[in-house]
Amino acid sequence: MPRGRYSLHDLHDHTPLGEEHFHCAPGPSGWRYVSQTTAPSGDHLGSIDLTLDELGRPIRLELHAASWQIRGAALEGVTWVRTDPTGTHANEGNVRAHTFTGTSPAFLIATARLLRLTPDSPATRLRVVAFTDPVLAPRTVDQSWALVNSEAHATDNGPLTVDEYQVNALDTGEQHTVHIAGDVVLSAPGIELEELESPPSTR
Predict the structure, then answer these.
(1) How far apart are CA 137 and CA 84, in angstroms?
(2) What is the residue-wise DSSP string for 72-111?
(3) How far, in Å, CA of 94 to CA of 67, rounded?
């Protein structure tokens, strides 16, 4: 069960945004990721609890930030309920999309598990619903993912395969690179792995 800590940074000026303390593991249904996010001051910012099925589809998402809450799942595309901080207003949304995304590294791993790309796979287009901080506003975006390199590295616990993905935002043309080993993000825009207590789980 990988357990560790990511540091989160602003994509443009690299200002520290906080840390995400996580643990994740394969389970009977597929894979689960749980984390708590803290500000640079140490104050609690939010949390995520994401469960995927064996095909990588989100069967349960619970996301908290700034007292806002999202509960979602793959249902006729993806469906979610967004609740305001007072708890008096809940709005339901549904989009013909493949999965969810957001600032947590969990969403990058979830998308990689959903796509199951190989280095021979063509770039794959998908539609995702992004929940933007700090109020978890939903936004539908189109992305393209390609696995450009997969390389095994020797470690004390045996070979570790690192996958390098190129992710394109199709609305802006912006490209970025994501490095994933098993179910841990090694690096991505705005994300750095700072601490890992046990090796990543393989699929």
Answers:
(1) 11
(2) EEESSSEEEEEE-TTSS-EEEEEES-SEEE-SSHHHHHHH
(3) 22
For residues 56 and 111, give the distance between their C-alpha atoms in angstroms, rounded to a whole number.
7
pLDDT digits (tens, 9 = 90+) for 122-135: 999 999 999 998 89
Q: In the structure encoding, which two tokens stand for residue 195, read together?
A: 């601490």
Residues in Cβ contact with 47 at an 8 Å cutoff, skipping those fewer than 6 apart: 34, 35, 36, 37, 62, 63, 64
Per DSSP bridges, beta strands 124-132 and 99-101 are parallel
pTM of the model: 0.94
Give the position of tokens 């390098």: 164
- The token duo for 180 is 């994933």
Tens-digit pLDDT profile for residues 22-43: 999 997 779 999 999 999 999 9
Which pLDDT score, from 0 to 100, does residue 203 have?
Answer: 66
Per-residue CA distances from 151 to 164, 169, 203 (Å): 8, 25, 16
Distance between CA atoms of 179 and 54, rounded to whole angstroms? 22
Q: Which residues contact 70 (CB under 8 A, 6 or more apart)?
A: 61, 62, 63, 64, 80, 81, 82, 83, 131, 136
Give average pLDDT by consecutive 10-residue segment, the chain, 203 residues. 94 92 90 97 96 95 95 96 91 97 96 95 96 94 96 81 96 94 95 93 76
Query: Among positive and negative, which fits the CA dihedral 192, 141, 49, 44?
Result: positive
